[in-house]
Automatic annotation (TrEMBL), chains A, B:
Protein name: TetR/AcrR family transcriptional regulator
Pfam families: TetR_C_24, TetR_N
Annotated DNA-binding residue span(s): 41-60
Species of the source: Nocardioides dubius
Matching PANTHER family: HTH-TYPE TRANSCRIPTIONAL REGULATOR RUTR, HTH-TYPE TRANSCRIPTIONAL REPRESSOR KSTR2
Segments forming domain HTH tetR-type: 18-78
Domain of life, source organism: Bacteria
Amino acid sequence: MVEKKSSRRRWPEGYDPAGTRRQLVDSALRLFEERGFDRTSLQQIVEDAELTKGAFYHHFQSKEDLLWQIQDEYLESQLKDARKIVESDAAPVEQIRALIFLSLEGVAKHRPHVAIFQQERRNLTGERLEDVTRKRDEVDALFNETITRAVDAGDLRDDISPRLITFGILGMCAWAFQWFNPRGTMKIKDVADQFSAMILDGLIVDSRN
Amino acid sequence: MVEKKSSRRRWPEGYDPAGTRRQLVDSALRLFEERGFDRTSLQQIVEDAELTKGAFYHHFQSKEDLLWQIQDEYLESQLKDARKIVESDAAPVEQIRALIFLSLEGVAKHRPHVAIFQQERRNLTGERLEDVTRKRDEVDALFNETITRAVDAGDLRDDISPRLITFGILGMCAWAFQWFNPRGTMKIKDVADQFSAMILDGLIVDSRN
DNA sequence: GATAAGATACCTCCCGGTCGGTATATAGAG
DNA sequence: CTCTATATACCGACCGGGAGGTATCTTATC
């Protein structure tokens, strides 16, 4: 995969401009996850990608711009998938299960993105911060709408506010990135199923069944 | 208070060393929460406390040392309270409710500590990181033990692993600091009660009762 | 030649940390 | 009580280094 190893000034035959950008993003993804945004210098990113600052500033406006693009590509992806679920004709409760799975799947499949989004968001400022926050809120709102619909339909108890349910579920899912090990024995689908069961059916053993 | 190597130190009565130190900690608490550890310079902390770098380095070994002390004072406090709950003679399920409340109460009452612990932990290194991680794990373990006891006693269903239940609950509670507004209408006790109900009794409305 | 893609040298800024000095309070000697 | 020695508490000028960012030049493609 890594074809470009030229530290000298030579252009390979089919050189790929988009590939260079990707390489920078991928290096940043790794380094930001490992060491955090502030503790990762431009120099490190550029060396990791076997490039130079010149290349970097040809593709990005600033270090913050890179951070924003990383977060944006994840949010856009999650937003798209979440919309697909909410716009489906599945029952509200099934949509909730699907959203839980989507969220956890994101954690499992895109760890660096999630880590960076959760931990480095505050390094964004101004418009970029607003943009990312807005998109995050949109995803949250999709959860909230679905949950509210489930409550209104009488499928979920109405003595707990939908807002609180939403935050509870989001928290459970978001927290997974703190402990879930993709290489462990537990598959993310199992986590999703058990979390869903826990929230929807409850934990208490009583005499009703 | 941790003093490992000391050479017969005694505090003169007339001075107020603890006050100065507190002022530095309090300034750091505010600034770290607002701007993050890396984006807060020593100069800012010291200016905010109306002191100088000289004073700072008289009380702390380094910037990281200050960060560690802040996290430590929170963890010690939570650990103490959590132990008290687990060592009580309340029923396991009631202990779980109490632990959930403790965790959420921490978020509400010590926002800056929680924010700094959750977001800036990675800025610690070596022994200090290990120490904080160990104490965090101890708190988590108290949750886990209690939950396991509840499952073993037959109070909670046994088809969801205690470990997963623990992480679910911890996530819900930890996430609260992302959205909970202490000045809002909702009291933290209500959040705790509703989260407990959600997890323990479940959300689904069925015909069995 | 125009333009894109990238390399290299360089700039300014400010960060964490140091270090010598000073002021204050207490303890002990006389 | 005063005088002095000493430890604490704090000040603030200073430093090396590395940070993000820029200017300018070179090379490849059309």
